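Rather than argue in generalities, we have chosen a single entry, letters for residues, whole numbers for local backbone shapes, without further comment.
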Amino acid sequence: MKKDVEFEIENADMAADTTAAETTQQTAASEAAEEQADKEAKPKSTLDELRQRVTEDDDAPISTLTLRKILGGDYLSAAMVRRQVWLCLLIGVFLTIYVAFRYQCQQDMIDIAQLENQLGDAKYKALSSSSQLTERCRESHVLEMLRAHNDSTLNTTVQPPYKIQVPTD
């Protein structure tokens, strides 16, 4: 009986070793199959995922943007314009303010130029009037006018001027 028990234990050990080897081989094979399935499943799931995300109503920018599409108006969608309407209005207001200020500045510069011309004319008139007055007020000119009209008996003095001394009390 002892031999039978030993034989059964040896058979069980061998069976366990065989089972363990087979299990290891099966595990390795199943892991390889799973990796292969994962590799095949990832592109399919990624492709399916992309198909789910991308629809006709997608507002994402077009990846193949060409000049023809921009000039044709394909790039501008109603949703994009609606999103940017406030920006467009703000730019319009700023442009209007810029043009108004520039126009006002140009008008002010024209007014300044006209006023500078008027100032130059006024200075010229003042200078010419001042020179005429200086010429008419000269002693020699006054005496000539008086002699021409025979109005006065004024003559130029031959004596030099002198100071009158007033005693102080």
About this structure: The helical segments are 2-53, 67-72, 78-137, 139-149. The chain has four helices and no strands. Residues 78-137 form the longest helix (60 residues).
